[in-house]
Amino acid sequence: MNQAGWIPCHRFDRWKFRNAVLELGQDYSSQFRHIAFALQNLRQGDLILDGEIVALNERGRASFQELQNRRTSRRPIVYYVFDILHRNGRDILDLPLVQRRQILDAIGTHFSDPLRLSPQFRTKLPALIKQVKTLGLEGIVAKREESIYLPGKVSDAWQKHRFNLESEFVIGGYVAHGKNFSSIIVGEYCGGDLYYVKRVAAGFTPHLRDQVFNQLKPFVTLKCPFINLPEPNRSGHGLTADRMKECVWVKPECRCELEFVERTHSGRLRHALFRRLLS
Prior knowledge:
CATH architecture of the largest domain: Beta Barrel
Strand content: 35-45%
Structural class: alpha+beta
Number of strands: 18
Number of helices: 6
CATH class of the largest domain: Mainly Beta
């Protein structure tokens, strides 16, 4: 592949800026005033930039949880720019990426925090993958040098490679749905107690869902096996006492393997995906 480079990344959400902080047509300038102010004072003409807002943890790595909690977090929040779509009345989406990047690099010489230019790497892929995994980053993006910008479309000229974590967990229940379930409820042991960590709905085919459901049915019990439930509804997604009424509990006899992006500060899993039952 003829690539402009591999770009390490934490998430793949895009934020476009034109004198404001925008995502999918929504104006978030009031939530990221320092970024909007920096863009307004960049004085490089009329621009539409594409990039990603990132909250950095104490090790300088992107933290999705810190970004979610940006109203209370004291961690720095910056804007990594990786493309340019428009400049001074001219759309440049049809220019090859290598030319768009040259324009962006020139503008990037005027950046100062919280604006940052997303780095590119021209190197062999295995070595880069090893380093990205060592640093605990979420993945990389590869783009062809000659590729144009296709807003809202999937193209094989841009490829995303995500490196998730894997681990084993205990199934302690499920959320009933019809004659089956909508999600399983998983946890892990700590000091002999089972702690809830996630409801998992992704990763199931119809056949796999039936297989898991049949495996769990003999272990149904009235007692919740998790020591840390119910939980407060701070995020709007908590497994509260009311939501627990929809749950069917099972004895913690079955284990599964999950794939997930990261753990939050409280030990919860982000973007968990069911992989398989374990014997």
